[in-house]
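Hi L., both proteins are below.
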Amino acid sequence: MQADSASTIDDSIRKEKRAQDVDDIDATVRGASPTGVKDIEDAVFGAIGEDGPNYRNLGWTGACIVMIKVQVGLGVLSLPATLHTLGLVPGVLLMLLICAMNTWSDWVVGAFKRRHPEVYSVADVGYMFGGVIGREVLGAIYWIFMVAVVGSSLLSISIALNAMSMHATCTAVFVAVALVITFIFASIQTLDKIAWLTWSAVFGLVAALLVVTIGVGIQDRPADAPATGPWEKDLQIFGKPTFLAAMSAVAQLVTAFAGAPAFFSIAAEMRDVRLFTRSLYCAQTFMLSLYLAIGITVYYYTGQYVASPALGSAGVLLKRVAYGVALPALIVTAVIYAHLPAKWMFLRALHGTADLTKNTVKHWVYWLGSVFIVVIAAYIIASAVPVFSGLLGVIGASFCTALCLILPSFMWFYDKWAERRTNKSWSYRLVFAWNVFQIIAGTFIMVAGTWGSVIEIRDAYHANGGQKPFGCDDNSNSVPSS
C-alpha cells in the first residue's frame, strides 16, 4: 500500500512538472515579438529560433477556426442524406450524441497534451501505451486515416470542378489538378500561416450551404425530383434502413465530427495551450449549430431527392454556384489534412537535429518530400474509390471511431486509472462509465459501419452508371440517397 501511495505521489509530481514546463514555454512564447521567437525549447520541436519557422505561434482564435475547418467540410455535405437514411428524429438525436462523444474526446486530447507536452500525434500516444510497437501501429493508423481524408477531399474537389465546368474534361484530370493545388498550399510550414486560409474557407463553405439551403427552399421541387407533373416528398421522421445502411450512415455522422487526431497537432502549435478548451468550445458550438440548421433545412425541402454531396440538391445552376463558392473550403480541407501527416513524417525524420527548425536544404528536401508522398497516396485513394458517401463511411467507421472515440477514452484511463481505488466521487464514476461506453460503442460502430460502407461502395460499382476506379465519368451528378 505504501509503495502504491509513493508511486501515485511520484506520478502526480511528474504530471505537475510537465504542466509547469508547458506553462513556462507558453509564457515565453506569448512574450515574444511578432517576427519570431528566440531560444524556445519546445518538447516537440526542440529549439525554436528566429532563423527558422516558428512552430509555436498559433493563437486561440486561429486554433478555433482550424478546429472548425478540420471538422466542417466533407462530413456536413453528407448530413441531409444521412438524415433521410436514419429518419429525422433518430438522425438528430444521434447527431447530438456523437457530437457529445467527440467533444469529450477532443477535451481529453487537450488535457492529455497539457500533461504530456512531448506528444505531437496519436503515434506518440501509442509509444506511451506500447513502446515502439504501439507507436508504429497507431502511427500507421493515423497516417492512413489522414491520407484517406485527403483522398476524399481530392474527390470532392474533382466533383466541384466537374460541376462548375459541366464536365469539361476527364475526372481523373480534375483529381490531378486538385493534387497539385493541395501540394502547393500544404507545403506552407506552420499552422498559424495556414490559419488565415481557413477563415475564408469556413465562410465560403457556409455561404455555399446557404446558397443550396435557400435554393431548395424557394424552388418548386428539388433537382432530382420529376421535372414535370406532381411529385411527392417522402420525409422520413423515423427511417427504416437496413442494419448495414444505418451503420454506414452513423459512420458518416462520426466523420462529420472527427477532429481528435488533428487536435494534437493544433495544440502543439498553440502559443498558449491552456486556451485549447476555449477554442474547442467555440468551435463545437458553431459547428453543431451549423450542422443542425443545414442538415434539417436541406432535408426538409428535398426529402428522398437529397443528393450526396448535398451541394448538388438545388439544380444545375445553383449547384455550379455553390461549388464555386465552396471550392476554396474543399481545397483547405485537403491542405490541412495533407499538412498534418506530412509534418508527422517530417518530425520523425528530423527529430533531434538542427535541420528541424532551420531553413536548410535538408530541411526543405525532407519537408517537400513528406508532403509529396502524402498527396500522391491520397490521389491513389481518390481515384481507386470514387464513391463519395461510401468512402466517407469507410473513413468514419474504420478510422474515426478508433482515433476519435476509442483512443481518447483509453488516454483518460491511462492518466486516471490509478484513482479507481481512491476516488469514490460520483463524478469520477460517471466519467469512468462514460469512457467505457465510448469504447464499447466505438468498437461496435467500427465493425458494423465498415461492413456497411464497403457494401455501399460495392453496390455503387455494380450499379448502372456507377463510378469506376480511375474513370473519366462525371462524378458531380449524384444519385439520390436511398
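That was the first. Here is the second:
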Amino acid sequence: MSERVPAYTAAQVRAAERPLLDAGVPLMQRAAAALAEVVRDELARIEPTAVTPPHRTLEPVVRQSPDAPLPRVLVLAGSGDNGGDALYAAARLAADADADVDALLVADRFHQDALTSAIGAGVRRIDLAEAGDVGVHYALVLDGILGIGASADPALRGSAREAVTDLLSRARAEGRMPRIVAVDIPSGLHPDTGEADDAVLPASVTVTFGAVKAGLTSGRGPELAGDLVLVDLGLGEGLATSEPAGEASVTRIVEAREP
C-alpha cells in the first residue's frame, strides 16, 4: 500500500536538517540504522548469490534455511555523508551477521569513522577488480556514492563513474542485475530536477532521508529510483514553512530511532 507525501528540494531539506545538526542530533546514525533495517528486509526476500552458478538468472525467493550461507552485499561508498550512511549501515549488517559485506570506496576521501566502524564489524574493503561478476557474486548493492550535497552537478566522475559503468557493463553481460538499494537518491541523479546521464545504477528501492527529494518524482527519477521508502528523521518542524516542490508515493515510512 502506498502513501502520498510531499517532496522537497535539496536546499529545503538541508535547511530543515541544519537546526538538528547544530543541536547535535545524530542524524547520520539514525539514517544508517533505518537503512540497515530496510536492507535486512530486502535480503530476507532473496537467496544468497554466492552459491549461484555463473550466468544463472536468479529471481528473488524466500530463504529456506537459517543455516544457508549469508547473502553478499556490495557497498559503494563515496566521500560524503551518503558514503558515511552506507558504511555505518554496513557495519550494522556485518555485526548482526545479516550479510557478508564488501565495501568499495570510490573516492580518495571517505568518512573515516564510518569506515573504521565497518571494518571493525567485519566488512571487507575491496577494489573494483575484486568485485568480480557483480550480478553473480552479490545479492544486493548499496549505492552510497553521492547524495544531495552534489546537487549543483551530480554527474558521476573519475573512479566513481568508472565503478558504476564497469558494474553496469558486467551485470548486463551476465544477464543479471543484483538488487540495488540507493542511499537517499540514486547516485548521479539530480535531486531537484531528476536529470541524469547513463552512469547511474537503476535502483530497486531508494531509501530517502527526512523527505522525498523532488528529483525522485521528475525527469528520470521515477525510472531510476524504484520503490521509495521514506525515513522520517524528524524534519517536520523544519519543513513546515516550506512550500513542497511536488508530491510522491512511498511504499513505506520508517520512523528513525535513536541508535
